[in-house]
Amino acid sequence: MTLVSVIVPIYNETERLAICIESLLAQRYKELEIILVDDGSDDDSLIISRQYAKEHPGIRLIEIANSGVSHARNVGIAAASGTFLTFVDSDDVVSSEYVGNLVQAIQNPEVDLAAGLLTFSNLETSTSNDSVVPNIIGRDEAALQFADSYGWYCCGKIYRRSLITAYSIRFNENVAVCEDLLFNYEVLQHCKHVALLKTADYLYWQGENSATNSLDNVRWFDALDAYKIVLTLSVENGALLRTLSFNCDYLLCEASYRLQAVSPDEQGALLRKMEDVAALLPQPRRYSLQQSIKLALFKLFPGVVMRVRRRRVAK
């Protein structure tokens, strides 16, 4: 069997950390090195991690000063020795087939990245009955699929480590939100082929205090910086630019809503950031009827749309 490195960045996740680690220990695919990177936790997360590392030889624990999730993932990448890499957030859960399904999809030597769907759920365990026969596609089509349905998350994906190493690909440590977008966009520039699975073995959990859900968290607006970069890089790819533009337009609707929650002293700079990104969107913007309706609803009823989006928050 081929060794897979599972990188788990951890910061103050006492409540769900054990559940996450147990789901990794329950993998049917056993050739794993589980790399826990504690990012300066000041709760009991480090105690939990040390106990698991002591009891399970397949778990390695790296302790670092608090520097953010991107740095923690980069530390994990540098420490990894597996042929393949996958990332699991410390508050998420994966089914017992998660790693095995992804490994099966990336075994083709022409495939450098494989991705499954994510499940947004409060369930603690999951099983997938969907087909595990991968759809192998080119990187341009994969980018469209990521932008449209699979998401730009690094979670739910597996990477050929030799590609990450050869091109020194790392997470941007200056971006707190949508750092996954930048990472995967760069990975795709170097991929030969991508394998997509219809399985949904990754259960994604969003805590109410995360940057994604805290309405007054100014770092959320880093997402606009990420989109500014990829929109600029995609200017020659019309199909991808249109898809990314819709994603960004939708993000700008959310930014307008969030702007009301941040300090008045910070609103001016954030508004200018929004205007800079909006200026990069193609004109005219040709969206599908469904996309146009989604945007219109967000603009007309932002509070309602945000409440629906935030139902994913754990209770």
Overview of this protein structure:
The protein has 315 residues and is α/β, with parallel strands linked by helices. It has two domains: 4-204, Spore Coat Polysaccharide Biosynthesis Protein SpsA, Chain A (Alpha-Beta Complex); 218-312, no CATH class. Helices cover 44% and strands 16% of the residues. The chain contains twelve helices and eleven strands. The strands form two sheets. An eight-stranded mixed beta sheet has the order 3-2-1-4-9-6-10-8, sandwiched between helices. Strands 5-11-7 form a three-stranded mixed beta sheet. β1 (4-10), α1 and β2 (32-39) form a beta-alpha-beta unit.
Task: Characterize the largest beta sheet: strand count, sense, and whether it forms a barrel.
Answer: 8 strands, mixed
Overall SS class? alpha/beta
- The total count of helices amounts to 12
CATH superfamily grouping of the largest domain? Spore Coat Polysaccharide Biosynthesis Protein SpsA, Chain A
The total count of strands amounts to 11
Domain count: 2
The CATH architecture term of the largest domain is Alpha-Beta Complex
List the topology elements:
Blueprint: E1 4-10, H1 17-25, E2 32-39, H2 45-55, E3 59-64, H3 69-79, E4 84-87, E5 93-94, H4 98-106, E6 111-115, E7 118-120, E8 135-137, H5 139-150, E9 157-160, H6 161-166, H7 179-190, E10 193-196, E11 202-204, H8 222-233, H9 238-259, H10 264-278, H11 289-300, H12 302-309
Parallel strand pairs: 1-2, 1-4, 2-3, 6-10, 7-11
Antiparallel strand pairs: 4-9, 5-11, 6-9, 8-10
Helix pairs in contact: 5-7, 5-9, 7-8, 8-9, 8-10, 9-10, 9-11, 11-12
